[in-house]
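Practice record 12: protein with NAP.
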Amino acid sequence: MTTYDDFERTAGGAVLMDGNKLRDEIVAGIRAKIDSLGNPAVCLATVLVGADKPSQIYVRNKHRKAEEAGMISRHVELAEDATQDDVENAVRDLAEDSGVHGILVQLPLPAGLDAERVLDLVPPEKDVDGLTERSMGRLVRGRVGHVPCTPLGVMRLLDRYGVETSGKQAVVIGRSTLVGLPQVLLLGRKGCDATATLAHSRTSDLAGVCRQADIIIAAAGMARLVTAEFVKPGAAVVDVGISRTEDGIVGDVDFDAVQEVAGAITPMPGGTGPMTIGCLMENTLAAARMLGAVPT
Ligand code: NAP
């Protein structure tokens, strides 16, 4: 049986897995660590191509949090009509710059640019988004490397809010390389020890599959896909999805109904989104350690 500590609860009695609060704890912890080391320069560099408004906001938030964490940041902005060579040259410069520890290329890139070729230029030590082929390979092989920030943030939430994973059934909805696939790998890793099922749009009886689960992680991008009938009483439900609807931004989980049944639930917003940024800061400090800029 999953046990939960004395955490804040929703009206229906579920533990509220507060991503803003945990992100703030992580950022404050990193700041304290950097301070205690005499403030070595830890640098996160971002690359933004084009004028996509949400991407601009995401990047701005990342810089703000980096500053709060006691890091310095650099930003390279390229116009919408930048060529593949322009973007690759910008990333190559950052890869070669010993003063830069983490590189984040904000995705998606404008149409016509090949993101894979750009990501290939990010060295694994600096790949704080954990999305390159080599970082994913390290995750699969169980070698030291950076783990993608969103699934890592989900793991931090489960851990912080006392959600037992060992021997539990987990269902991840969505199989992207950004979220679902690494999420399943993390849940099934030794030490975490969940039995993880990867569900997707061809999964038959998704509600029935989810009802078996002690942990549901919804990363499909389908507004309010997970209703109360998907949820076993007491299960932990984590909402990763973000859909822009007429009602505003909506998650994959029907929060109002599900919080009546779940044992723990993430709010939306305020759950996995802030944790993604918190884990980016964690990865950036780890990158500086891997590169020898900060003592281990
Ligand atoms: P994606 O690449 O579009 O993948 C979506 C996955 O969901 C696919 O595997 C798809 O299955 C599956 N899916 C779609 N509809 C489904 C349904 N009705 N039933 C079951 N599975 C279904 O998206 P992504 O990049 O993984 O992102 C997923 C969501 O998370 C998006 O809303 C995105 O905005 C959000 N997101 C949030 C954060 C955060 O920080 N909170 C970070 C990243 C992404 P098939 O493979 O069969 O097509």
